[in-house]
Specification:
Chain C: It comes from Nitratireductor rhodophyticola. The complex is a heteropentamer of chains A (526), B (298), C (325), D (339) and E (326). Chain D is built from 13 helices and twelve strands. With 339 residues, chain D is α/β, with parallel strands linked by helices. In chain D, strands 6-7-8-3-9-10-12-11 form an eight-stranded mixed sheet, with helices on both faces. The longest helix of chain D has 18 residues. Chain E is an alpha/beta fold. In chain E, 34% of the residues lie in helices and 22% in strands. The relative contact order of chain E is 0.14. Classes of the chains: A alpha+beta (526), B mainly alpha (298), C mainly alpha (325), D alpha/beta (339), E alpha/beta (326). The structure holds adenosine-5'-triphosphate (2 copies) and magnesium ion (2 copies). One adenosine-5'-triphosphate binds next to strand 1, strand 2 and helix 2 of chain E.
Chain lengths: 526, 298, 325, 339, 326
């Protein structure tokens, strides 16, 4: 066959994503050893995703990542949206993975309420993916965060499975040991908006998860836990009854009522909050009876509690009703509406927001789970070195984001003595997405070969400095229940393995360059 | 052309003479020497550098050769956190630094000189148009422009050059224009006109040689600008990781937390190289200033 | 009559330059790869949402129509809505502009005060050992990449010595009644110190070298010799006559330096977590947030153009040869 | 002979250039009587400005007074400590530079610059200074209303008048005017010279008038000093020097000047050649290479400044043949033959 | 007065107005026009040499530049040998360039410091299409014409290696090398030392006579003009005040301005008049010339009519005068 064209491999800039960048350098070097000409192209996230998402026929392979979020404790969002054929056209299956067998498995998984049966289906899905290698899974990074133990009682820090210690639970329970009662933490990204009806940047969610309550929150163990709901109960596989907690108050003093809850869910599908719509579209009806709210679903949904009840922010009807009514008459929707002072019912109240500098929240002492700290202050620090320096000097006391080398952090903690670090395997993961639409990536054998060519342990060591778990499954070991250990253990990697797969599939090396099997032509060379 | 009966010095020699290199200024000589050393390094980079600057290296025991201190395992200046040889990077970095610096300087000097010559000599609407264009170029903040350009085209060291060519001709252009204005009013230009020389000939013969040193001066300022800008652009993440430059090395160092790791060997060598080359340019520039505007100097 | 006409023509000229810059900006950003939609990509991102967003940002309209809308909005002082932050660009930038300006001006004032004094001193002491060592040193400061210098200062003065905080404009959670109260507070100074110092070190070279060479120039003027012959004191000769005259071009270079500095801020703001225009611009560009990037760029450009104008005016004001023509 | 105010004795000034040095003034001696105008003439580069500046002791950085005495009122100011010299400047010795445009500080008003001298150097109070300013302006014929103007607002002639006013501000004993009218038009030149003459006789001061134009000397000066290549060629009363020149150079100069009053058909006669390079002066008389009357000794031996008539000195080996030479010098052929 | 029918140069009501002032002075309403030449009319016959006299800034150089088409007239007409200068273009202009030449004030400025003397003199030859082989001979010839002894030794020197007098001769040689009909000399000796002035003037006179050149000699010094020219035109603020035979003007100036000018010229004699000049103090301001007669504000004889009406240049005996008194 023809010589395989130069393969473009996208990655983000080193300054933004050092580990990803380094992994890609290593991977490219391994692939070149197979006889491929690899061109690493560095571009900022927005450009990269523009190509990958909107020009689906136009790329070869790209570094990509899924981050851990509490709602993703249920594997449904990942296993369905990333690989199902319905999302291949314009949805998240941008790699164009089409496998009818896989489709059936995940369609069944969605509506299976029985956990044991569902677990089998999820395992099966992981196996199919391992065999097909539509993506090349790399690692589940370990999130490493740090805090000042002379300020915060280490016992009050909560490690959330798959997420790490930077989580809502920690912020609520952190207990000061001394004078300093403010949680001061850092973020490298700017806060984009604090809007309960808009899903914006990752940092934003740290803020609105504290300001707004939800009926259910995903607990530190990854399992849903009643929160603003006193309790919830499946009446049948399409009906769930939720009892609202008594005595809750909005930050402006008004009581939280079942009407507010109903309003919150209805607003999501009102057309004014398109981003939240997917989480509430499955609801057919919401009925109120005293403090009990009954949701009737259109279809059974295994993940409803995690992905809907634990996702929709509760918002005060008296504040938002006039706003929504006004927005109906305008071109904008609620996503671009920024309240002067966001009013929620959560454990922290909104105090102040200085553009690109800091956000200040104060403890809501009236909350049923009132925080121990007094204030929660988020500082925007784009320079990693500076963030670490600030932690050591006490300018911040909780390192909530650290994109640098974890070893450096550990070393700093050791030297300093006042710092404690906690590393947690993430439920998110890093991978290289293959464009399954384009040859040679349409050949599972080729994908498998590329994937096996790279020793994940080298990536873990060289790029992540040991702070990651090698991965071969989209379901992280952090989600212990759903994770299929076998797919990872059965994965064999190495240059020789890859060469053998390629040879078996008929690829040939001519000169130093890899050629297609048989008489396959290169159709995409420029 | 002028007179063929007499032997004339060769073109190259004449060119260098007309540049009027400030060889009697010790600073300028130091600058020229630094340039010479770096130019030689760039030319013979392949022979000097022991490794490919982008190659990820392994230690004899098949471990990644990352974070090695200078001298360890035979790496003269150590390795980066990705296991690349710093010395080789410095050597190859010379190449891109000079490539960027010299081409940018050439573009800036060339475009600026042409604009200045045409504008200053012909005056009238040509002048008005070109000077308004210069005003526009003055209105465009340079570094942001390069960033946008880097985002617009792909990250590449040439972005800096293109941006400089598009924007920075303005300074050279204006200065040369005013110089041309004074030259134009010199009697010998009138004399040339009276003796029947065409405009083109006058520009070429009587005016251009006089602004050559000035173009060269602005060119050497541009070298520094280009290298510094490339470094800043790399630092902000818009650089080209394929071609190793000193700016890239600096940003690599900071992305790898050189300060926290106290890995001075990551950022001192490229930093020193940048400072050397850019200062060398400034030294030469100053020598020139003393030469061109002797009343400035002492 | 001709007075008004000249004013009008000057204003027209300025407007033309601005229009050209605006148009270049518009085209540049529209033709740029990258898609503002990229910020929303999520496994739950649906087709309808994508289309709704395109319509909301007006990206479904033809280019010329977008251009006209953009120009129309500009004329009304609107810079559009940020894609990423979903808020009016002008509002957002106006909160950042004061930070950038104060950083720029404070660093330049330090740089110019120092540069002018040192430049005058070096001119006075020309040929001395001090001068011979100072000049290469000054040239070297201009040869250092700003971020490099910034990081080193950060490491030394913040991490190592702990004298100054590492980033931001104020202590965590501190609140002030007004911007004025913030800018006049002692804490603010400690936050301002390092970034301003970085910029100042970088920019002192220009006034210093300029002042020095102007001084040398002016000291050779007949009126300085005359001042000596008049038997005036050294101080009178050097300060009243030489320095006063040498200062003119240096002062006008200040206005132009403001323009350059605004551009240089981009890097320093990132190093010192300074919430300013430059950082915002970089973020906006990499996020393909056209309206925001365009707005930030435009704002910097306007300041630069204004400063060029002020430089012209300043010169004609400070130099009696022009102002009393 | 009236009392001598200034007596320059064997003054030597040299400039350091690269490794070598130029003896720009090499043994100049002349006297300035009280209340007289002395013209210092010579062609470009002969050292007139150097002498004039040496008298103020504000000289170029690379210049140094290497010998001789400058006796001012009996005191050798060449040897005076800098502080005492500075006290003397402007109060006793004032200076009018060639180009008043460049010698007035462009950023201050004329009044400021007058005040600076009157108050800082003259110790006058604000009121007195103001009155003196007005008085000075009246003296030089400019309306007092223009005191607040900047130098560039005056025309060339007026600026020269301002410079004169400035020089007279502290009633100095000696005013040194370095080519005060060279850059001006004939009409303005004449007006300024009239003014200078008038003020000088009114105030009884002494003036050294540096010029390269013997017509100017003829118009205003009492005495003439002719310089050639850093040396004094001839010095004496103005009419004696002009009408009965004893130095061939002076004779040549006379021939080279067009004369509006003379016959229309007159032919001008140039002195061929150029002044010597002062870095390598000829060993004997410096004029010898251009001199039609040069003899053997002239090229080997330096002539001394000798007396030809009372108060009239010439440095020429053939000074005693002056009358004969003068006749020969009047013929054009004399000068051409030697070309 | 009868004139030979065909003058070589004829200037009719020539004007040259410069627009001056920066954008800022314009803003304050200072933008203005300098009328460097404002309605000048005269004729020059073949072989005549005319002195253009007047104080600094009166427009002498400007007039010269107009005549050489270095500046385009903003009004009026200038003819050379019957052809209007304004219409000259391309080859015709080139031919004119060979016929009309300029000698400059400052010899050090008039030659390109980077050109050797040979290159300087070769330029006009080259432009005129003289073959390279002939040039050397022509150059030597021209240098001999201006009495530069042993011209060969200067050919490879650079301008700074020559004295002012020598260089001015080179400049003259360049002007003469194409054997022009018409030469404008703009203060050719004002930058030279007195002792060498005479030599250059003599060469000028000599060459003019030998080549039968038509010449304009620009100067502010009447004594020099008298030495070179038989006819003199006196200018003041862009206009002609008086035009006539030099000797007549020197002996008996008519116009009040000319009177002052003649009286002001210093002479190298101890015995001369010290009478005050018959002219007011102050300098002419070319941007705001007085109404009517431009000289009236300095004129001791000015009367009402002078403010209202600009006097025309009228014949008065052997010459023409622009004054209401004649
Ligand atoms: N600063 C200096 N350094 C070196 N040489 C100098 C300096 N100033 C003057 N000279 C030389 O000294 C000599 C005398 O110069 P000076 O200025 O006194 O002459 P001058 O008679 O005033 O001439 P001019 O008529 O041109 O003003 C000249 O040969 C000149 O080149
Ligand atoms: N290029 C120009 N732009 C504007 N004004 C000019 C220009 N050239 C000359 N002028 C002005 O025109 C007037 C006449 O100038 P011109 O040079 O012709 O005078 P001039 O008689 O030759 O004077 P000088 O004796 O000083 O050489 C002056 O007021 C001068 O300032
Ligand atoms: Mg002098
Ligand atoms: Mg002139």
């Amino acid at each position: 066959g023809d010589q395989i064209r130069t393969i473009d491999l996208f990655t983000r800039p080193q300054a933004a994503q050092p580990q990803e960048f380094q992994s890609i350098q290593l991977i490219a070097q391994e692939w070149r050893k197979l006889g491929l000409d690899v061109n690493v192209r560095v571009m900022p996230w927005e450009q990269m995703s523009d190509v990958v998402w909107y020009q689906r026929d136009n790329w070869d392979a790209t570094a990509w990542q899924m981050v851990g979020r509490p709602e993703r404790s249920d594997p449904d969002e990942i296993v369905f949206n990333l690989f199902h054929s319905t999302t291949a056209d314009k949805g998240y299956n941008f790699i164009g993975y089409l496998n009818p067998e896989y489709d059936t498995v995940v369609e069944a998984e969605r509506v299976e309420i029985d956990e044991a049966k569902r677990k089998e289906l999820i395992d099966k899905a992981q196996e199919i993916l391992a065999a097909d290698q539509p993506n090349m899974m790399l690692v589940h990074p370990k999130q490493t965060f740090a805090f000042d133990k002379t300020v915060w009682d280490p016992a009050s820090v909560v490690e959330q499975s798959g997420i790490g210690i930077r989580n809502t639970w920690t912020f609520m329970s952190l207990t000061p040991v001394g004078e300093q009662k403010d949680i001061i933490l850092n973020s490298g990204d700017n806060v984009q908006a604090i809007n309960p009806l808009y899903i914006s940047g990752g940092v934003d969610s740290w803020v609105f998860e504290l300001v707004y309550d939800r009926l259910v929150r995903v607990g530190p163990d990854g399992l849903p836990k009643a929160w603003a709901a006193e309790s919830y109960e499946w009446k049948d596989d399409k009906t769930i009854a939720v009892t609202l907690r008594e005595g809750m108050k909005w930050h402006d003093g008004e009581p939280v009522t079942p009407e507010d809850v109903k309003f919150s869910f209805e607003t999501a599908v009102s057309g004014e909050a398109p981003m939240y719509a997917p989480f509430a579209t499955n609801i057919e009806n919401i009925a109120i009876d005293g403090s009990t709210i009954t949701f009737t679903l259109k279809q059974p949904a295994a993940s409803f509690v995690t992905s809907s009840l634990a996702k929709i922010n509760l918002i005060p009807k008296h504040v938002w009703e006039p706003i929504i009514a006004d927005l109906k008459t305008k071109e904008e929707n609620a996503e671009s509406y920024q309240e002067e002072t966001p009013i929620g019912s959560g454990p922290f109240r909104f105090e102040r927001w200085l553009t690109n500098e800091e956000i200040v929240l104060s403890a809501n002492k009236d909350h049923f789970n009132a925080p121990k700290a007094e204030r929660w202050i988020l500082r925007i620090v784009p320079n990693v070195e500076a963030a670490l320096g600030m932690l050591r000097s006490g300018e911040i006391n909780f390192l909530a984001e650290f994109s640098g080398d974890p070893q450096v952090l550990l070393q700093a903690a050791e030297q300093d003595g006042d710092l404690e670090t906690v590393s947690t395997v993430e439920m998110g993961f890093r991978y290289v997405a293959f464009n399954n639409r384009r040859p040679p990536f349409d050949d599972p054998a080729f994908r498998r070969a590329l994937s096996t060519a790279v020793d994940r342990r080298l990536i873990v060591k060289a790029a992540y400095r040991g702070y990651a778990e090698p991965s071969n499954s989209v379901v992280s070991p952090a989600l212990g229940f759903w994770h299929n250990e076998a797919v990872v253990e059965g994965f064999e990697a190495g240059h020789d393995v890859a060469v053998k797969i390629l040879e078996d599939a008929g690829y040939t090396l001519e000169g130093d360059r890899l050629h297609y099997p048989g008489d396959q032509k290169e159709t995409l060379a420029e | 052309m002028l007179d063929t009966t007499l032997p004339r010095p060769g073109f190259v020699a004449r060119f260098f003479r007309s540049l009027r290199l400030p060889l009697n200024d010790p600073f300028a000589v130091a600058g020229l020497t630094i340039y010479a050393i770096f130019i030689l390094t760039a030319i013979f980079a392949d022979a000097i550098a022991p490794y490919d600057p982008t190659e990820i290296l392994y230690t004899p025991d098949y471990d990644l050769a990352a974070d090695l201190r200078p001298g360890e395992d035979g790496f003269i200046l150590g390795t980066t956190s990705l296991g690349r040889d710093i010395f080789s990077q410095i050597v190859y970095g010379t190449r891109s630094a000079l490539l960027i610096g010299l081409t940018a300087a050439f573009m800036v000097a060339l475009i600026g000189s042409i604009v200045g010559l045409v504008s200053g000599y012909f005056g009238g609407w040509v002048d008005a148009l070109l000077m308004r264009l210069a005003d526009v170029a003055f209105g465009i903040p340079f570094l942001p422009f390069v960033i946008v350009l880097a985002a617009f085209l792909e990250p590449s060291i040439w972005n800096v050059v293109i941006a400089m060519a598009l924007v920075l001709w303005r300074d050279t252009g204006r200065v040369i224009r005013s110089q041309v204005l004074t030259l134009r009013s010199r009697s010998y230009v009138d004399a040339a006109r009276v003796s029947g020389s065409s405009d083109f000939k006058i520009i070429l013969r009587h005016i251009a040689p006089n602004i050559l040193p000035l173009s060269f001066l602005y060119g050497s300022i541009a070298i520094g600008w280009a290298i510094l800008t490339e470094a800043s652009i790399s630092f902000l993440g818009f650089g080209d990781p394929q071609s190793i430059s000193w700016g890239y090395m600096l940003q690599d160092a900071f992305a790898s937390q050189a300060l926290a790791k106290q890995a001075y060997y990551w950022f001192v060598p490229p930093g020193v190289c940048i400072i050397l080359v850019v200062s060398a340019g400034f030294f030469i520039t100053r020598g020139y200033e003393n030469l061109l505007f002797p009343k400035l100097g002492r | 009559m001709s007075h008004l006409k000249a004013m009008a023509s000057r204003a027209l000229q300025l407007a033309l330059v601005l229009w050209a810059v605006v148009t270049i900006l518009f085209l540049m950003f529209r033709l740029m790869p990258g898609n503002p939609m990229a910020a929303y990509i999520d496994p739950t991102f649906t087709v309808e949402q994508q289309e709704a967003l395109m319509a909301q940002f007006g990206l479904d309209k033809p280019l010329w129509e977008q251009y006209l809308i953009y120009l129309g909005n500009l004329l009304q002082g609107e810079l559009g809505q940020s894609f990423r932050y979903r808020e009016p660009v002008a509002e957002r930038l106006m909160t950042l502009l004061p930070n950038t300006l104060i950083l720029t001006f404070s660093s330049l004032i330090v740089a110019y005060t120092f540069g002018i004094l040192a430049g005058a001193y070096l001119a006075w002491r020309r040929g001395s050992v001090v001068e011979n060592t100072a000049i290469p040193l000054v040239l070297t400061t201009r040869a250092m990449p700003e971020f490099w210098l910034g990081m080193v200062l950060l490491a030394v003065f913040s991490f190592w010595l702990g004298w100054f905080p590492a980033g931001g404009t104020r202590p965590a959670g501190a609140s002030y009644d007004s911007l004025w109260a913030l800018y006049t507070s002692r804490e603010f100074l400690s936050y301002l110190a390092l970034p301003a110092l970085t910029l100042a070190i970088y920019s002192q070279g220009l006034p210093l070298l300029l002042m020095r060479s102007n001084m040398l120039d002016v000291m050779k003027e007949d009126f300085v010799t005359m001042a000596r012959i008049k038997g005036l004191s050294n101080w009178s000769v050097v300060v009243r006559h030489a320095a006063r005259n040498a200062l003119l071009p240096v002062m006008t270079s200040f206005a132009i330096a403001v323009g350059y500095q605004l551009q240089g801020n981009v890097v320093v703001e990132s190093v010192f977590s300074w919430p300013g225009l430059g950082r915002e611009l970089v973020n906006a560009v990499s996020a393909s947030d056209y309206p925001l990037a365009q707005g930030a760029f435009l704002m910097i450009a306007v300041v630069v153009i204004l400063m060029n104008l002020i430089a012209d005016l300043l010169y004609s004001l400070l130099d009696p040869r022009i102002s009393h023509a | 002979m009236t009392e001598t105010l200034l007596s320059v004795r064997d003054l030597k000034v040299s400039y350091q250039v690269g490794k070598g040095s130029i003896d720009a003034v090499d043994g100049a001696s002349f006297d300035v009587p009280r209340g007289s105008i002395v013209g210092l003439v010579g062609e470009s580069g002969c050292g007139k400005t150097t002498v004039a500046r040496a008298l103020t002791r504000v000289i170029a950085d690379n210049a140094s007074i290497t010998g001789g005495q400058i006796l001012f009122d009996g005191q050798d100011i060449a040897a005076l400590p800098e502080r005492e010299m500075n006290a003397l400047r402007w109060r006793d010795i004032a200076f009018i530079p060639q180009s008043a445009m460049n010698s007035l500080d462009p950023v201050y008003t004329v009044e400021y610059q007058l005040n600076e001298v009157l108050r800082r150097r003259g110790g006058l109070g604000r009121r007195q200074a103001r009155a003196r300013c007005e008085e000075l302006f009246e003296m030089v014929g400019i309306e007092a209303g223009r005191l607040g103007d900047y130098p560039h607002q005056f025309s060339g002639g007026m600026r020269q008048r301002v410079a004169i006013a400035l020089a007279l501000a502290l009633n100095p004993k000696l005013v040194i005017a370095d080519e005060p009218v060279t850059a001006l038009d004939v009409i303005v030149q004449r007006q300024i010279l009239d003014q200078l003459r008038e003020l000088q006789s009114m105030l009884g001061i002494s003036v050294i008038l540096v010029t390269h134009d013997i017509s100017v000397v003829a118009y205003v000066c009492d005495r003439t000093v002719v310089m050639y290549a850093g040396r004094i060629a001839e010095a004496g009363p103005m009419d004696a020097v002009l009408m009965e020149p004893s130095h061939p150079y002076t004779m040549g100069l006379r021939n080279a000047f067009p004369d509006l009053k003379g016959a229309a058909s007159g032919v001008l006669t140039p002195i061929e050649g150029a002044p010597p390079n002062l870095a390598f002066p000829p060993p004997g008389c410096r004029f010898a290479p251009r001199c039609p009357f040069a003899v053997e000794t002239c090229t080997t031996q330096q002539p001394a400044l000798g007396m030809v008539a009372p108060d009239h000195r010439v440095s020429c080996h053939r000074a005693d043949e002056a009358v004969k030479l003068r006749q020969e010098a009047a013929r054009t052929e004399t000068w051409l033959a030697d070309a | 007065m009868s004139k030979p029918p065909k003058p070589l140069v004829s200037v009719k009501d020539a004007q040259l107005h410069y627009r001056v002032g920066s954008a800022f002075s314009a803003m304050r309403g200072h933008s203005s026009v300098v009328k460097a030449v404002d309605g000048v009319t005269f004729e020059i016959q073949k072989g005549e040499s005319v002195g253009l006299l007047g104080e600094s800034g009166c427009g002498k150089t400007s007039m010269g530049r107009l005549l050489l088409k270095l500046e385009e007239a903003t009004g009026g007409e200038i003819q050379f040998a019957g052809d209007a200068l304004s219409g000259l273009k391309g080859p015709a202009l080139k031919r004119y360039r060979a016929k009309a030449q300029l000698i400059f004030q400052n010899p050090f400025e008039a030659v390109n410091p980077r050109f050797t003397i040979r290159a300087t003199l070769a330029e006009p030859l080259e432009n005129a299409g003289i073959p390279a082989a002939e040039r050397e001979g022509r150059i030597i010839e021209a240098l001999e014409l201006v009495r530069l002894p042993q011209p060969q030794q200067y050919l490879d020197r650079y301008p700074h290696q020559l004295s002012g007098g020598q260089l001015q001769r080179v400049v003259m040689a360049r002007a003469l090398i194409l054997q022009p009909d018409f030469v404008v000399a703009d203060e050719p000796v004002s930058m030279l030392d007195v002792s060498v002035r005479a030599g250059v003037l003599n060469v000028f006179r000599d060459v003019r006579d030998r080549l039968n050149l038509t010449a304009i000699y620009i100067s502010h010094d009447l004594a020099l003009v008298r030495y070179v020219c038989e006819r003199t035109i006196v200018m003041y603020l862009g206009r002609i005040m008086e035009d006539g035979p030099t000797e007549d003007i020197v002996r008996e100036p008519l116009h009040p301005y000319t009177k002052a000018l003649v009286a002001a010229v210093p002479v190298p004699h101890p015995d001369q008049s010290h009478d005050p000049l018959p002219i007011g103090r102050g300098a002419p301001d070319p941007r705001n010339p007085p109404s009517g007669c431009v000289f009236r504000d300095r004129c001791p004889l000015a009367f009402d009519r002078c403010a209202k009406e600009a006097p025309a240049l009228r014949p008065a005996g052997s010459r023409k005068v622009a004054c209401h008194l004649f």
